[in-house]
Amino acid sequence: MTVPDSSASGPVGPEGQAGPKGRVSQDGQAGPDGSSGPPGRSGPSGPSDLPISPGPVGSGGPVRLDGPWTHRDVAANGARFHIAELGEGPLVLLLHGFPQFWWTWRHQLTALADAGFRAVAMDLRGVGGSDRTPRGYDPANLALDITGVIRSLGEPDAALVGHDMGGYLAWTAAVMRPKLVRRLVVSSMPHPRRWRSSMLSDFAQSRAGSYVWGFQRPWVPERQLVADDAALVGRLIREWAGPRTPEFPDDAAVDVYRRAMCIPSTAHCSIEPYRWMVRSLARPDGIQFNRRMKRPVRVPTLHLHGSLDPAIRTRSAAGSGEYVEAPYRWRLFDGLGHFPHEEDPGGFSAELINWLKDSEPDR
User: What is the pTM for the complete model shown?
Assistant: First the structure.
């Protein structure tokens, strides 16, 4: 698989918009003249045969799905990033995990906006509508993507909310650029040092995270992710979700994530951060990153986790508080799996908003 350079989407202009008029970007969306063909299809090499369900999949294509939010592109850290934003107020930046993209935060976008926040969900590098660059998937650089987006949005800081890989990067950004992180919220992901030690010393966590080991093979994981119109994506989401909420995932939501994974080069770029996390364990860059993450997190932190998460065990995540020298609150959602923000969006959003509005989060 050849990963196109970020310039394949066209140059980034002064407004953060990519590509000349009429060019089709990485997410299958047309330029200003709408010349990419009928809506909801990603082009000849995209997942054009997957069903288009009514509602959010509608005319927005595989990435820029319709809703009350606004889509646009911003330039940061030498690349172009797609964001969906809604509301006005203090910035809350939402970071998705694997195998998802910005749309995983659709419920929180509206809830945060209604609560008086500027809610922004971004696509990480290589995913959704953001650039797919040939390199730059180590956590330090990905964290600079995030802090660069904060700057590009004209904000002095942000509350970071990260799930899964987005949580891993949120931890990293809070250590690397603490002045840009007002508060930190992490869901379904331990602190990077805790993740490392659990994967290496806890057999149960290593087995639960076997997909990470499987990603180390060349080429095969990419092919498996997109085979049969990304059927594996649907299986992973269903297997990792908890049994308490049969409403998630429904077929329509699974189809959305399958379509997004089938955008060319997304599978490869989604896997690259996990490859770095394992292959760098004994390399100087990985050892240096692990040492760097010894620095404590010094911003108020809310740590959320599903009690039945099969991908990240509760005891792996629960020890992360030792790396926080600030108010730290641990919240376990009973009966939920790996996606608490989608399995119980009302409960998750209420916990998040109450904590963001709490002037004394250490209570």
Answer: 0.84
